[in-house]
Amino acid sequence: MIEIIRFVRKKFHGASLRELAYLEIEAFLQGLAIGIPGAPGFFIRFWLYKLLFKKLGTMAWVSPQVRFLHTHKLRVGNTFSANSGSYINAVGGITLGDFVLIGTNVTIVSGIHPIEGPLPPVFARPVETKPVTIEDDVWIGSGAVILAGSHLRRGTVVGANSVVSGETEEYSVVAGSPARKIRSR
After folding, report:
1. Phi, psi angles (nearest 5°) of residue 3
2. What's the pLDDT score for residue 82?
3. What stretches in the chain show pLDDT beneath 50?
4. Which of 32, 64, 85, 114 could form a disulfide with 105 if both were Cys (CB 3.0 to 4.6 A apart)?
């Protein structure tokens, strides 16, 4: 039991008891609302996220089965949509601008597990946080992955199943793994 307590303290370095309690409440409330279909579900999720997010603009269209973590570190502008199966972990902070469209099964993460050296095991290492910024008028296609520290500039379109690491140019269309600019829009 003492070993488990030591592991948890090390794994969640810097996390207060208040933050850990918040994450539990966040998970519970989302669990209640995540699967509600139709207009009632959209309405309930909007008001839930209005309470949980650090900032949420005027309209959020969040489909069932979208999972958010660390919502208190998530800032979202006006007119936002996230489709089913997407996973957004704001452990390091995520800012989304206005008119951001997120396709199905998109992953956006703002933390990484360091892998340098054999010890300690990767599982036991604390997460390194790197904020993600997604500016206005961005469309992220289905299955895309946006990695920690990425900055998607205004007007970027990310192709389906692409992996973005780093910065994009304004009004660029990027695709591939790793994502590369394929044209301007």
Report:
1. -60, -40
2. 98
3. none
4. 85
Residue 37 and residue 44 in contact, taking contact as beta carbons nearer than 8 Å = no
| CATH T-level fold of 2-184 | UDP N-Acetylglucosamine Acyltransferase; domain 1 (2.160.10)
Q: Please, are residues 108 and 85 in contact by the beta-carbon 8 Å criterion? A: no
Structure confidence by residue, pLDDT tens digits, 134-152: 999 999 999 999 999 999 9
Q: What is the pTM of this model?
A: 0.92
Partners of residue 152 on adjacent β-strands: 134
Task: Report pLDDT for 112.
Answer: 93
Active site residue 72: no
Based on the number of CB atoms within 10 Å of its own CB, is 173 exposed (0-12), middle (13-18) or buried (19 or more)? buried
Q: Which two tokens stand for residue 5?
A: 């307590």
**With contact defined as beta carbons under 8 Å apart, do 94 and 86 qualify?**
no
**What is the C-alpha to C-alpha distance for residues 60 and 154, in angstroms, rounded to an integer?**
19
What is the model's pLDDT at position 17? 80
Query: Which residue of the set 13, 70, 113, 151 is catalytic?
Result: 113
Spatial separation of the C-alpha atoms in residues 48 and 182, rounded to whole Å: 38
Residue at 55: amino acid letter: K
* Structural domain boundaries in the chain: 2-184
